[in-house]
Amino acid sequence: MSVNRCIQITPVYVNVLYSKYLKWFIMQTRNFASSANNPLKMPDCKYVPSIYKGTNYEDMIKGYESIVSPSLKPFYKEPLIIHEGRGQWLWNHRGKRYLDMFGGVATVSVGHSHPKIVAAISNQVSKLNHVSSAYMHSRLYEYVTKLIGKFSGKLGVVYLTNSGSEANELAFLMARLHTRSHSIISLKNGYHGASYGTSASTAMSTWRYPFIAQPPGYLHAVYPDVYKGNWGGSKCRDSLVQVTGRKCDCRENECIASEKYFCEFEETFCFSLACRESIAAFVAERGAVQYPKYFLQKVYNYIHEKGGLCIADEVQTGFGRTGEHFWGFESHGVEPDIVTLAKGIGNGFPLGAVVTSTEIAKSLNSALHFNTFGGNPLACVVGSTVLDAKEESLQQNAQTIGTYLLNQFATFLSEFPNVVGDVRGKGLMIGIELISNIETKKPLKTEHMLEIFEVIKDMGVLVGKGGLHANVLRIKPPLCVTKTDADFTYAVIRRALQKHEEKYRI
After folding, report:
1. Percentage of the chain with pLDDT > 90?
2. Which family does the record assign (predicted)?
3. Which of 2, 70, 257, 361 is the most exposed place for a label (fewest CB within 10 A)?
4. What class has domain 128-391?
5. What are the backbone angles phi and psi of residue 452, rounded to the nearest 5°?
């Protein structure tokens, strides 16, 4: 009887093995065929994705054009259907593999489909996936206790939200209630969300709709960009790679550009605020554009003297992405009154947070405040697991690989001086600004930028694009990328820039 069972099972087992290896062979063949014109070797990946069985490509395109919001503009001439992800890798519906160097806009922090997160979600959803915040549950307590452990000083109270926009809106509300003032000051070229209030604090024309009156109480101050701004030199930036071609007269513990930009920041109070009016808060993120040294310290001190609060937008820079510290503001030696979090906090799961002091948190007690999904058990489990996964030396990896990548990319400044104007960033938060004129720093033409963007994708690397003129390549991958991945990314972008120069005979 047992022998017969073996005889019956064996062919099935062989078929399963055959099917598995056939699928692997098909995937490898597709990857080989797609890279026939790309001699650069993509790093190995042992994971075999499943076969895509979803909606066909043509119907998906039509659906996005008709029933999905038309404001959602997919990247690339031939939009990608992303079917599966694992670690730093993504696969499209045809089985082609891509190295994800964008991380869903700096959102995937510990890697796609991290096994600990997959297990935690599965375990929690089988027990309780949602309960109103009118009730208590242990997952929320466990998570916020872990999260608070990542802060020091007065930052000891957490409010959970669903996104960065929500977190910043709540931070603005708390600041206004606490200070009994209304004005929120942000920096030009900064981004803080797409809701009504946060879009008003976002000082970029590309995020402004015509004919829509902006809410009152939002002011925009000078953006201290040492590459394109009026001031800045070769020693000013808080970055491994400094600005080239600009003289710097700064001395130790002193930055002339920082002082100049601060003086212009101070003028906002002289010309844009009502006489004797105090402000509610100053908010700033720290993206790939690095502020000059000591600038934030000067601003924070000034804001506090004026009775305002300082909000650190850590939606993109937090959770070790900059490598040097767990939070971006720590590298500037400042202590914010409120910190807003999202993106990497949930590794792609909708989760955001506002962290502040007990005194400021009490300001919400003057009326009812409620968020239906804030503190959702499933979200809390994900957030808690992300913090656990961060113990896998990911912050150190961000520092090591980010430093290595920045040094690699810095060679573009001398190799492609007529196309690459600036390389900047810290850790795994890097920007490569492409230009068409080295003297004026005029942005690279849109059609040329898109060509480079497409070539990089065709060679198997996904990056982002940003900046007011969308001429900056954004490198913000999952923090688990390797040195081999970094080498491949560098080689692909270098090849794309070479093709651009060959085509236009630069």
Report:
1. 70
2. Belongs to the class-III pyridoxal-phosphate-dependent aminotransferase family.
3. 2
4. alpha beta
5. -60, -40
